[in-house]
Amino acid sequence: MAEGDINANIVQARQFQLVDDQNNVLALLGSGPNGSAGLEIYKGDTPRLSLGTDETGRVSLSLRDNAGTISVRLAVDSSGSPTVFTFRDAPERVRAQILLQDDGAVGVTLTDGMGAERVNITVLADGLALVGLYDKDGNPSDGLANERLED
């Protein structure tokens, strides 16, 4: 079947656009090179929500502010982990991140308004908890660790 052909059960295309009465794009569903695919929901000309896969099989959901900047992102790689929750206040500045790794470790990273890592809390799969504190330049300033947790 050629691209764009219609049959009783299947419609094929590389891109679908949902538009309003004035022909403004409200949503876009499309495929890209190397097996990527995505859905974007718009308010005006600005994407506000994105859901997609990339060529590696990674899946992500992004929530965007009024300017289209990603504020919150959830991503899962092709194997199902690690899972990453990312919170941003500027296009390239992550303010908080939660990471769940496939080995059972979990971590939280917090940054300051300049994007420098300031606090990192990690619990390893074996129960060891680590806390890293960093100065305004992102250099380690102090750290805490506890004993491995026993059942």
Enumerate the strands of the largest sheet in spatial order, edge to edge or round the barrel: 1-2-3-4-5-6-7-8-9-10-11-12
Mean pLDDT: 83
Q: Quickly give the CATH architecture of the domain at 81-151.
A: Alpha-Beta Complex
Q: N-to-C terminal Cα separation, in Å?
A: 60 Å
Rounded Rg: 21 Å
Number of helices: 0
Secondary-structure element order, as H and E? EEEEEEEEEEEE
Ranges where pLDDT stays below 50 over 5 or more residues in a row are: 146-151
Into which percent range does the helicity of residues fall? Answer: under 10%
The count of β-strands is 12
Q: Which descriptor suits the 3D outline?
A: elongated
What is the CATH domain class of the domain at 81-151? Answer: Alpha Beta
Largest β sheet strand count, sense and barrel closure = 12 strands, antiparallel
Describe the fold and architecture.
There is one protein chain. With 151 residues, the protein is mainly beta. It has a domain at 81-151: Outer Surface Protein A, domain 3. The protein has no helices and 12 strands. It has strands at 15-19, 25-31, 37-43, 46-53, 59-64, 70-76, 83-90, 93-100, 106-111, 117-123, 129-134, 140-145. Strands 1-2-3-4-5-6-7-8-9-10-11-12 form a 12-stranded antiparallel sheet, with no helix packed on it. A hairpin with a 5-residue loop joins β4 and β5.
List the helices and strands and how they pair.
Layout: E1 15-19, E2 25-31, E3 37-43, E4 46-53, E5 59-64, E6 70-76, E7 83-90, E8 93-100, E9 106-111, E10 117-123, E11 129-134, E12 140-145
Antiparallel strand pairs: 1-2, 2-3, 3-4, 4-5, 5-6, 6-7, 7-8, 8-9, 9-10, 10-11, 11-12
